[in-house]
Amino acid sequence: MIEIGRFNTLTIKSNTGMQLHLDGGEYGDILLTDKHVPRDAKIGDTLNVFIYTGSDAEILATCKKPFVQMGGVAWLKVISIGRAGAFLDWGVAKDLLVPFAEQDYELEVGDYCLAKVFMDEQHRIAASTELNNFILDEVSYLKEGDKVSLIIAKKTDLGFKAVVNDAFWGVLYYNEVFQPLKEGQKLTGYIKKIREDRKVDLSLNKTGHTHVAPVTEQIISRLKENNGHLDLSDKSSPEEINAAFGVSKKVFKHAIGVLYKERRITLTKTSITLNK
């Protein structure tokens, strides 16, 4: 069965050289809307295409890769305003509509917004900036330590609110973030804690002994590049540590603690030395 708003592998049913139609099964023939038909495309061949909907809910196909697929959240630019709402550039010929009723604030041309892609009641692909209608506060399938995809939504009093795996809300606390973050930024993160109310605390770094192995090797490599010496220690500031290794002070301290126990380094209050 064809999944609208996602990539599907379909068989070429007809090719006039100007237009190419794909076998859409229950949806009938589906037009490939790309201006240029793929070279050497023959009847019976298959194409991996993105399936989307037109203005009248007709089913269409393209070889282009959209910026976001069905159910996803993305940071998209408003390129026009029409009678039905605002239209976003999402990398496909038919712009993505955010109906006025799905806007949590008035969108204007040139704005960027965080939008969720969904199927409307007329079976057309649309988007919404009313994220709270789609993104859940309570997680259902994740566990602590899981690697997740994040999109930064906005700043709060506590930290950065982020969309987790296009489905849940989570928070990155200010005192645990040591790099610039901006709205719409995509990142890889980790589930730091799932609270009793099933809300999520996030981290940009892995936790636990096994997860610091890449950091320990990075420290050893940097020591070797600097004649076995670094002017960093567990007393260094979080900003200095993040600038050097891109990790939090907690992760850095854990990593050098592992190296110290393995007797691979010597520590002072201001430096690290590689043991011979």
Automatic annotation (TrEMBL):
Domain of life: Bacteria
Originating organism: Methyloprofundus sedimenti
SMART domains per UniProt: S1 (SM00316)
Domain S1 motif: 69-130, 143-205
Family matches, as Pfam families: S1_2, WHD_CvfB
Name recorded for this polypeptide: S1 motif domain-containing protein
PANTHER family the UniProt entry points to: CONSERVED VIRULENCE FACTOR B
Family: Belongs to the CvfB family.
GO MF entries: nucleic acid binding
